[in-house]
Amino acid sequence: MRRLPDASPRGRAITVDLEGESIPAIEGEPVACSLIAADEQVLARSVKYHRPRSPYCFAAACSHCLMRVDGQPNVYTCRTPARDGMRLERQNAYPSAKVDVFETIDWFFPRGLDHHEMFAGVPVAEQVMAKVARQLAGLGLLPKEPAPTPPPARTLRTRVAVVGGGAAGLAAARVLADRGVPFLLFERDGHLGGRLAHGAPEADAPAVPEDSTFPKGSILTRAPVLGLYDDEDGRFLAVGAWEPEGPRLLKVYAERFLLAPGGHPPMVPFENNDLPGVYSGRAASLLLRRYDVAPEVAALVGWGPELHALANLMQERGVKVVAVVDLKAAPPSGAHPTAVQGSEPKAHGLRRVGAFSYTAKDGGRKKVDCDAVLVSVPVSPSFELARQGGAKVTFDAGRGLFVVEADADGRTQARDVFAAGDLTGGGTAKEAGAAGRRAAEALVGGLS
Fold this sequence. Notes:
globular; FAD/NAD(P)-binding domain; seven-stranded mixed sheet; 27 strands; Ubiquitin-like (UB roll)
């Protein structure tokens, strides 16, 4: 990965401290983005085998970018804005993440290590092994200083609480605003739009509206929703909102909850899929469209329309695309010239991606050199909040995903919980917007 030579200025140039080394960064962008743009690929080590780790999803859905930031362990650097002088340390490695003596575990136990059974039943050795395992595993060390006292929680009340500022959530918010229904929309990112703003471009996708087009104070960004709970005053969302004085817990009571949090990028099982340089397709499009960071030579693998749209986006921005492997279907018309149907993908490299190979459907193994492998598949719905609120979640065997059961208007098993967008099985951004509008209309009709 590198910052594109034609990148326009997106913020003030600063430096961050990575274990005593000064690294260039852009103020406000995710610090993990600045690090990989500076060719710092290894940000952490895996818990058990101490394999090198690099950011994969840029959605805080994996643990590959966890670092110690200004003394605070286990911080998602894919979500932490870079600021001048920020101190960064890699975790779970000895003596360093670049040269970790414990990665020899992988060589001594090529078929895997079950530390729970090692020396089980052997006096003394059993106890020693348990202590060693506890020391080697775990994520980071406790902070050196006590955590600052957070500001007191704040209680908010509204008619409708909307979770997610993507295509579905924004379409629902527009209906509520036009109807004059008080609402609050919570978006975990610092900007609205979701895949509309940073995914692979889609035909007929709606435009991202400005915050100012909604009622003042109705849109809260950098406000991830932590849970949906009940107490003596009713049902409420627990929201971790970032405010100027620091993170604050919000209790948001509402009559109806419209959930459209989208999903997170899953991983496709293939050999060496955890090498630094393997990124999700959504992460790759985010890095390119929002931060002008991209690989020089990329191989793409996965299935679905986003795979081929991402390949064309990469090609248009100067990335050399050497392979596009669709694991489920023949490439559609207009696909990248290298697109083929294939199987058995494999990433190659010792500490980072250096090549990619696959078996084409018509036979024969092919290997190409690249510095990144982009895995683009339909996202896995973030159903946890809906299930916590009483909605029914089922496994869709055809798509291999857990989805929230909802009717065409977004009604779920829980009377006050509505769902839309990727939560109910995905689709295009245009379809997600239509689902959000239907859910909002149905929700308004049931309000007292």
